[in-house]
Prior knowledge:
By secondary structure, this protein is mostly helical. It has a single domain, classed as Orthogonal Bundle (Arc Repressor Mutant, subunit A), CATH 1.10.10. Helix content is 44%, strand content 4%. It contains 4 helices and 2 strands. It has helices at residues 6-12, 42-50, 55-61, 67-84; strands spanning 22-23, 34-35. Helix 1 crosses helix 4 (67-84). The termini are far apart. The mean pLDDT is 80.
Amino acid sequence: MPRPDIHAILALEGHMDFAKYFQRDPGVCGGETVITGTRVTLRTVLASLAEGSSFDEILKDYPSLSEDQLRAVVAFAAATAKEDLPLLPVPTLE
């Protein structure tokens, strides 16, 4: 399966309703943010991606997830990083 097109995901970030994909309930996973309709935490999926897992590997490990939900996780991470983290200047070689 080809890698997800990050440009397509980012183009959707202004139009994506993240509330549709994520929920927080004190009675589910101790109130951590989970993917809607599952007990899989947002943190778990992000950690899997950070460790280099592919979408296919994550979907195999967590069959309750869909590819759309994984795309929402990536879009959410990109949108929040864009808002929360200041961009550092890129060093130049002189």
